[in-house]
Amino acid sequence: MCPTHQDIGFTNATRQYAIKRIPPLGLMYLSSTLRARGYRTSLLDLTIDSITPERLYDEAVAADTLFVGFYSTLVNAPVVREYVRAVKDREPDLPVVVGGPSSMEPHKFLEAGVDVVVQGEGERTVVELAGALAQGTDVAGMHGTAILRNGRVVTGPPRKQIAELDELPFPDRTFTDPDNYYDYFNITSNQPFTSIICSRGCPNRCAYCTSPSFWGRPRYRSIENVRDEVLMLHETMGIKYLDIVDDTFNADPAWLDRFLDMMIGLDQGIEWSCNLFPFKRDPPLEKMRRAGCTTLKLGVQSACPEVLRKIHRAPDSAEACQRIVTQAKGLGYLTFLDVIFGLPGESPATIERNMAYTYDVDATITKYYRHLLLEGSELSSKAGEGELCDLSPEEIDDFVDTAWRTFYLRPGKVAEVMTWFLSKPRAYTRLGAYLAAFQGLGLLGVKG
Ligand code: B12
Ligand code: SF4
Asked: Can you list the pairs that 394-399 forms with residues at least 24 positions away whose Cβ atoms lie under 8 Å?
């Protein structure tokens, strides 16, 4: 059957972001993969267009829609279920599919009316699924899927990884106008900006993270393939800034070195940010700077060796983070540091040490998070074995609030962040968005 008459609607359903909006790469990859097979697709990003669940059907569903697909994470899962219900209320027979990081616990969606959950990497599965739905064949047992049959979750075998990422078409950017996306949190980010991903997977096995179980062993695109996409983005869309969302951009030093040579060779003035991991061997920060990198994001998660050991991180990785941040600040980078409160072994004493550590390291921006038990992580599989730490969620939240406030309300810090902020004239136009965001974080003492 020729698939060109079928329309597939994808939806990135979550709240609107005031200061950080990033194109939904996963759905964009699915869209380009399906289009390459002759399907028609549409993509609604609800972080940009605030469409109510009741209106979604009219906006996303055409007469010949084959299925509607949602991206879901732990955080947006309740919202996704609301949208699913609204679609099912209008047309119970229209297949609804959910994928994304939350797919590791499919029953949460299947029991809410979702027909198929696609688990893990989606491109191969979605093509097979679209074919089956178009032909009306049974999808039970299909690789990489879960469905509900007679009240029981029926899971197919895991989908084999895509070994050659270069075989994938570039993400479909038809529906994601770069003017709608920005990262005001990243003060160095030029407009227009977009996100790209050069690898899938991470060689580390942090116990709280889902990357190892979700993506499997790390795979890389070739430098030539990445270069072609970067050039295309720059030449056809005028992209000036790339948010490189790879889990761990410095996992393969040889690949990174070739990437840097490529960016230096391009010489287009394109700037970028990336996520680094504090490996024993420090990243080539000087060369990265010459290649256009302006912003580094590091997750230290804890400064306490006893906690780090429990999450399978080297006990000296906090020192490595400090070394990287200090060197990076000297080279003029904007530095971000993430910390998680409530990991195994956490106590008021370890939190105090974490806070003291972050003041000492003094990354430009430090973000404090409460630990979320992510589906598919090692910690979630141990969740039944007792509490992870002695602190209640409320106590952890209080520590998180206190940490945000005390870190930013230090006199020197206010001046440092303001200097970064005012170095970009366009920042003035964003003042309202910043204030709204900081209110949300409780920094101004106002809570919604
Ligand atoms: C960029 C990013 C963000 C951005 C934007 C999110 C986005 N969707 O682009 C921002 C900064 C806003 C963000 C915020 C958060 N993030 Co984030 N983020 C990422 C990151 C680094 C990259 C996302 C990406 O582009 N991936 C690449 C694409 C190709 O993969 P993908 O999106 O998963 O899509 C593939 C499959 O999942 C599947 N698929 C996806 N959707 C669908 C839909 C259908 C219908 C089908 C069939 C298949 C399918 O097919 C796709 C192609 O293979 C990921 C890590 C990662 N490697 O994915 C974390 C990640 C998604 N984030 C995570 C977390 C925890 C958060 C926060 C909660 C952090 C916090 N504490 O505040 C928030 C909450 C966000 C929210 N509201 O849901 C976790 C989610 C874990 C979970 N189970 O929910 C991840 C996986 C990181 C991790 N390893 O822990 N994040
Ligand atoms: S937290 Fe980061 S470094 Fe650790 S496994 Fe996940 S993606 Fe890799």
From this structure: 396/341, 396/342, 396/346, 396/370, 396/371, 397/370, 399/341, 399/348, 399/351, 399/368
